[in-house]
Design a protein that fits this description.
Belongs to the class-I aminoacyl-tRNA synthetase family. This protein has helices spanning 16-29, 51-68, 85-96, 99-103, 106-115, 122-136, 150-174, 224-233, 250-263, 267-274, 279-305, 308-336; strands spanning 3-8, 34-39, 75-79, 142-144, 187-189. It has 342 residues and is mainly alpha-helical. The structure holds adenosine-5'-tetraphosphate. Adenosine-5'-tetraphosphate (AQP) binds next to helix 1.
């Protein structure tokens, strides 16, 4: 079976963008593929953060995965830092990653500009190398991500090819063979809808955890009245009717897409249903759809969070399975790069 890996950072609250762009799609993918989903805690320390909150946010993110429908009989769920190979492979890959590749990353440029030089650690620059390690360790075929991760995925692919080119030949020649590779070159899986959920306060910016305004996003754990209030106050326009894909109406396109995804209706169906509506009619409809979709997730989340022994067991099992695969790749890389074997 083809293999898939993906993860979310335990920073801030998991929002509708993380859910529709990534987590929701995992639930379908786990029926077809071998799937590993991790909470990327090592990535969460690249910007100033609160150490006291990291472990709780990590547990909470794991509980969100399970509450959204990640099924441990089909998928491994684990914490990135529990599998040491992630950090170790990152060092090996860092040594062969041209720094020019990293300087070009849009996310680094944007986040470092916002945070200011004094707050930017080298980890923010080398973040994509850790992401490449997360993926390449598992010889993943596909990585389901939102559109914002496209550039990081391209770097991962280039890095895999570079290592295969630099060291793959030597390893295989030593073993008497030709060709072959150390890493599988993975493909991103960007969903046709939901890949870029936009902010509720600005239809041209993506919904994001780091937006200082909580009004800009729907968090998966927002209570009903908070959802209602955020939709009531979200940015709209004053044009008649509602429509998808009008570049002059980014908010309209975004809210209709969200409605489409949480109701499970087709785009055509939603376009027809909402064509003659005004915001006053559509907003309560969207609010109810969101609440109905998120409510069962929130109930399951509370149940999972109240059974800490269960969550611990899931994460231990997940890390054990993941480490088996990751260690095998890491040993191969050490050998191919010429390190003395223990
Ligand atoms: N707005 C979005 N629409 C669709 N997908 C999105 N993702 C993030 N935002 C959107 C996808 O969610 C997954 C996990 O993301 P992450 O935890 O690595 O991302 P993050 O950077 O912490 O989350 P944010 O909200 O994007 O935070 P900021 O902007 O503050 O850094 C990924 O698959 C991502 O594509």
């Amino acid at each position: 079976r083809k293999r898939i890996v993906s993860g979310v950072q335990p920073t801030g609250s998991v929002h509708l963008g993380n859910y529709l762009g990534a987590i929701k799609n995992w639930i379908t993918l786990q029926n077809t593929y071998e799937t590993l989903f991790f909470i990327v805690d090592l990535h969460a320390i690249t910007l100033p953060y609160e150490p006291k909150q990291l472990s709780e946010a990590t547990r909470s993110t794991a509980a969100i995965y399970l509450a959204c429908g990640v099924d441990t009989s089909k998928s491994s769920v684990f914490v990135q830092s529990h599998v040491r190979a992630h950090a170790e492979l990152m060092w090996l890959l860092s040594a062969v990653t041209p720094i020019g590749w990293l300087n070009k990353m849009i996310q680094f440029k944007e986040k470092s500009r916002k945070a200011g030089d004094e707050n930017v650690g080298a980890g923010l620059l080398t973040y994509p190398v850790l992401m490449a390690s997360d993926i390449l360790l598992y010889q993943s075929d596909f990585v389901p991500v939102g559109a914002d991760q496209k550039q990081h995925m391209e770097l991962t692919r280039e890095l895999a090819e570079r290592v295969n080119y630099l060291y793959g030949g030597r390893k295989w020649k030593k073993m008497g063979g030709r060709g072959g590779s150390i890493f599988k070159v993975p493909e991103p899986l960007i969903p046709p809808a939901g890949a870029r959920v936009m902010s509720l306060t600005d239809g041209l910016s993506k919904m994001s955890k780091s937006d200082p305004s909580d009004q800009s996003r729907i968090n998966l754990l927002d209570p009903k009245d908070v959802i209602k209030n955020k939709i009531k106050r979200c940015k709209t326009d004053s044009l008649p009717g509602l429509e998808f894909d009008n570049p002059d109406r980014p908010e309209c396109n975004n809210l209709l897409s969200v409605y489409q995804l949480v109701t499970g209706k087709s785009k055509e169906e939603v376009a027809r249903e909402c064509h003659d509506m005004n915001w006053g009619t559509f907003k309560p409809l969207l609010t109810d759809a969101l609440i109905n979709h998120l409510h069962p997730i929130q109930v399951r989340y509370e149940e999972i969070m109240s059974d800490s022994a269960y969550l611990d067991r899931v994460l231990l099992d997940g890390a054990t399975k993941a480490a088996d695969i990751a260690d095998a790749t890491l040993n191969n890389v050490y050998q191919a790069m010429g390190f003395l074997r223990r």
